[in-house]
Amino acid sequence: MSVRRGLVLSSIERYGVLAMGLATTFVTARLLTPADFGVAIVGLAIFGIIDIFKEFGGVTYIVQVDDATPRRVQTVFTFTLLLALPLFLILFLLSGPIANFYGVPGLKQYLHVSAWCLLLSSFSSPVYGLLSRNMQFGKLTVLSLTTTILNSLLTITLVLKGFSYMSFAWAQLISSVVYFGFCVAWGPKFPIYRIELTEWRRVFGYGIFDSSRGILNHLGDSLPFLAFGKTLGIEALGIYQRALTVSRLPERTALAGLFPVLQPAFSKHAREGQNLGQSFLMSVEYVTAILWPALVCIALLAKPLVAILLGSQWTQTVPLVQIIAISLIVLFPINLARPVLVAVGAVRDTALIAVLTVPIVVTIQIAASIYGLEAVAWSSFLTNAYAAAVSIYFVRWRTKFTWPGFFRSMRKSAIVTAISALPAIAAVMIVGSPDLLTIPEGLVAAVLAAGVWLIAIHWTGHPMKTEIARIISHLTRRTRGSEI
Please, are residues 351 and 213 in contact by the beta-carbon 8 Å criterion? Predict the structure, then answer.
């Protein structure tokens, strides 16, 4: 399957996942309090930390290795299972003390249910790795969409039935069972679920670095939430997490289909001997053209956006969204660095990046939380810039791209961003302040911004123009074909 077709299918998957996620957020935000969300966030953060220890780089190893032999895949499964079993017991047995630490008794039951998801995922991840390696994005799309729709419907139904934050845990467990069923049905012809350790040296040698990177990065995401639950309180944690979710919408919408394709695509380019430095700069050019205008518009239109997605009880998130969205402008290299470094065989660098960034970022965020939610949001400018700089340094070291080339790759995107922000800026100037924008005014400004973005892409001659023309041509042919 071509990279472009994979991108289309991945986009369909991610946009479907996003749509269901937004629907779930839209409904649950109006039925649950920030404190309810806070409990679920703590539970998800703890589960995520335990789960990342279980992976041990297995999926990435299967995608990147030259030949994914049955023994190597079986060894990945064996490692994953041997790690999952003790981690399952740890999470199950420590759920009580953890709940007592946060003073939330219901957290114990949440973690008990999540522990079973941890065990199930160890059987699913090797198949996911093989499907990704073989670029079978059609099956991945069906797999992801089916389980996501099920998860969302179950969550909403259980919330309506009064299960509160436990709705997220039970929906996750049932969806995990269905996900595993798909993996069994779509697995390879050879048996995966066998205890095999003959290739353990290769898997361990790769996994130790990739897992270190994954563990540290996940700790960087989760530890601040766990700390905020104590320093700021469960309710404030819920508010901050919702603000972060809204701020990162462009990453999960406009770029939804791109990131899952990057790893297989860069790995393919590396095997074919292509210039990965040039591939990286091309990715920067496309990503910034989409990400930057969206983030600027989110910052300017934060009030109506929060009102639409979350409802009136979440107005405290608006100033946080405005700050965080702008701080995310510099963070784009993070998502591009890892697939490039893995493709060139520099998986150790991904772990080193995590070692150099995560402890500093987490320390700054936790220290800022002492001074309140807005202090945490403002600290993102410092932490995001630092993390991006470290990532760029390592990618440049391995791919040898030039600084002039790097800045040229962003020049047209900067112009597009400035032009496409004009409708939102005009709306703010007319009403006098971003906090005075109504939902209709915000919607009009957003639609106009999208139209102006297309004009700016055409006027600047941005490479996105070619891709947009290709999409329009494809849709036109399909439309004419259906009419015939």
Answer: yes
